[in-house]
Amino acid sequence: MRKYGETAVIYFKAQLIWRADAVFNMLFTITKIIFAYVLWGAVFEGKESIAGFTFHSMLSYYIISSFLSQIEMSGGISGEISSRIRNGTFSKYMVIPMNIEKYFLAMEAGVVAFYLLFDFLAAGIWIFIFRIRFTFTSDVFVITCAVLMVFLGLLFMVQLNYYLGLLTLRYEEISTFLMIKDNLISLITGTIVPLTLLPDGMIAWMRLLPFYYVTYLPSMLFTGRCGEEALRGVLILAGWCIFMELLNRRTYQKYRLKYDGVGI
Question: Where along the chain do its domains lie?
Answer without folding.
Answer: 2-258
